[in-house]
Amino acid sequence: MNVWQADFYRRPLQDETGQILWELLICDTTGNVIYQSFCPQPDVTRDWLVSQVQVSVAKTGLPDAIQVFRPQSFNLFQEVGQQLGIKVEATRRTPALKQRLQERTLEYPQHENYTGEAYNPLSLDKPPPLPLPENLWGDRWRFASIPAGDIEEGFAQRPIPILQMPNELLPLQLGLASTVAVPGVVIDGGRQSMPLARWLQEVQPVALNYIPGAPDGLILEAGLVERWVMATFEDKEVAAAARLYEQRKQTSQGLHFLLVQPDDSGMTYTGFWLLMAD
């Protein structure tokens, strides 16, 4: 597939009139830069972006999809995609693009009109986490782990209604030994199992993190910048299990999972997600 990863946002640069410059950067999934151009902030419009994407299309052909990680960029690219007939995907996982953006940051100080402001090309404003809707609460939840070698065989071929196992997150692709314990969270949803799984599918889970505090919390990172409080707890045994969960993430290269099932019989699963922090 011909997939682009793209970003269009302001940079620590200005033009000769003092206008802040935005940069359009498009690369493929290997990091090869396809197109790059600057635009003064007053000229930032859908039409400008359409014209630039059309130039890029003329060079390399129409992409199957454009992946965008920045919310401010996504809205503009979505309009461009609708006009040009290109699928636009909102995803945090644009590693090639993020690598290029970090490299570009080292080049900006060499520009004549570098502003010198503090700048992080990957920084996004994230809202406070919201509580999980009460009507989706399941019966119980717990920390768990699965040997890396059992994940693909145990879930990929099963009739699970909602299954998210991206190829790039499969243990084999990550080079994990089959005996590595991949940590995760299992939710016994009871009657709410399917509504919960459908809601999760809609919000697009990315990572599930333990956050110590008073109380401790389990925070779901989802979509581009959304966060949800999946659970809170003060029990010391649960907190110890949470710390082990985070330790296991370190040995699994950050790979973890979320499993939603009606009950703990192990007979049927409602939803399964492989997750990794962006």
Throw out a few tags for this protein:
14 strands, 2 domains, Nucleotidyltransferase, domain 5, Tab2-like_N, 5-stranded mixed β-sheet, RNA binding, alpha/beta, 278 residues, 7 helices, single chain, elongated, 29% helix
Explain this structure to me?
The protein is α/β, with parallel strands linked by helices and 278 residues long. The protein folds into 2 domains: 3-110, 2-Layer Sandwich (Nucleotidyltransferase, domain 5); 130-275, no CATH class. Helix content is 29%, strand content 33%. The chain contains 7 helices and 14 strands. The chain has helices at residues 46-60, 71-84, 95-107, 148-156, 171-174, 193-203, 236-251, and strands at 3-14, 20-28, 33-40, 65-68, 87-90, 130-131, 140-147, 162-164, 181-188, 205-211, 216-222, 226-233, 256-261, 271-275. It has a 5-stranded mixed β-sheet with strand order 3-2-1-4-5. It has a 5-stranded mixed β-sheet with strand order 7-9-13-14-8, with helices on both faces. It has a 4-stranded mixed β-sheet with strand order 6-12-11-10. A hairpin with a 4-residue loop joins β2 and β3. α1 (46-60) crosses α2 (71-84). The two termini are 22 Å apart.
Layout of secondary structure:
Elements: E1 3-14, E2 20-28, E3 33-40, H1 46-60, E4 65-68, H2 71-84, E5 87-90, H3 95-107, E6 130-131, E7 140-147, H4 148-156, E8 162-164, H5 171-174, E9 181-188, H6 193-203, E10 205-211, E11 216-222, E12 226-233, H7 236-251, E13 256-261, E14 271-275
Parallel strand pairs: 1-4, 4-5, 6-12, 8-14, 9-13
Antiparallel strand pairs: 1-2, 2-3, 7-9, 10-11, 11-12, 13-14
Organism: Coleofasciculus chthonoplastes PCC 7420
InterPro entries: Tab2-like, Tab2-like_C, Tab2-like_N
Pfam family, one: Tab2-like_C
